[in-house]
Structure prediction request, 327 residues.
Amino acid sequence: MPEGARSETSLASHRLEDIRAFLNQNLVESDALVEKLLICLLADGHVLVEGPPGLAKTRAAKLLASKLDLSFSRIQCTPDLMPADITGTSIWRPDSGVFEFIPGPIFHSLLLVDEINRAPPKVQSALLEAMAERQATVAGETRILPEPFMTIATQNPIEHEGTFPLPEAQLDRFMLQVKIDLPDEIAERQILDLVDQEIINEPSKIIDPVSKDEIFAARIESRRVYLSPAIKDYIVRLVTAPRNKTTQTDLSLKIEHPASPRGTLALAAAAKARAYINGRDFVLPDDISALAVDVLSHRTILSWRALSDGDTAREIIAAYLERVPLT
Ligand SMILES: Nc1ncnc2c1ncn2[C@@H]1O[C@H](COP(=O)(O)OP(=O)(O)OP(=O)(O)O)[C@@H](O)[C@H]1O
Ligand SMILES: [Mg+2]
Prediction:
């Protein structure tokens, strides 16, 4: 047992380990993505996965859904999508003489929103309501979404034509923005082997999917993970460092709008979930440094100076991580 591990690993954390093992078994070289999906599941967050096409984003979401006893649905965003396509709509039933509400894909526990930046602003706004408030308003009536409710959205950073960049308020609703890259030669070969085997063999049945109650139990335990005052101070130093405009360092000039307290809260919650997933009942500085870029970069708006220098928010947050002292 690693140093600092929980002396008694609970049933809930075993079940989480089952999900992790299942995903890692079926996804090549995707440990980091898998861990972050689990962090969002545990910390009640949403995740935005950014990467070029064909990197198993849909596969990862479907695998997660299949190992969980939760309902799943997928939205492929296009510029002509209407809010009702995702929220659902009421239709008139002449036989019974009443309007019947037909729920849209948003009323599922696990929602994959592919190419979210292709959705027009009204659809993005309906998604924003769902993600932030766990509810959807259709024809003036507000309906509560199922619990848990987790959005896995994808966007392709290469494409700009026909896209509507997500507004800052929408981005802020994502706990993590995860970036994935093309695999190397060895991983590429493993992917070929894996998929080839799947084509040859019958798909195996999912054994013992993880239930809602098991997820809720793991959530309760992960919230109780100890976050020491020293680590809280470190999180706050890290999030507020870019707000300090009095010492105009080269870095602070690169940021137009730094992250809000939502960034602080998300970093703390995600760090607890990471500690829990790794069998600890306390957060380490390592949890913060492993997550800071994914939690903070999409909440950070760069200045024209940074953009003209070709910097990315991920690089700037990584530079702050190097600079902000641990103690
Ligand atoms: N790391 C990986 N592990 C296992 N399979 C992979 C991996 N990367 C790619 N694949 C395979 O590549 C194919 C494409 O995957 P998928 O459709 O999930 O990609 P995607 O990221 O959703 O693409 P798009 O952005 O076009 O929707 C699938 O057959 C998948 O099995
Ligand atoms: Mg896909």
Q: What stands out?
A: Residues 257 and 301 are 5 Å apart (CA to CA).
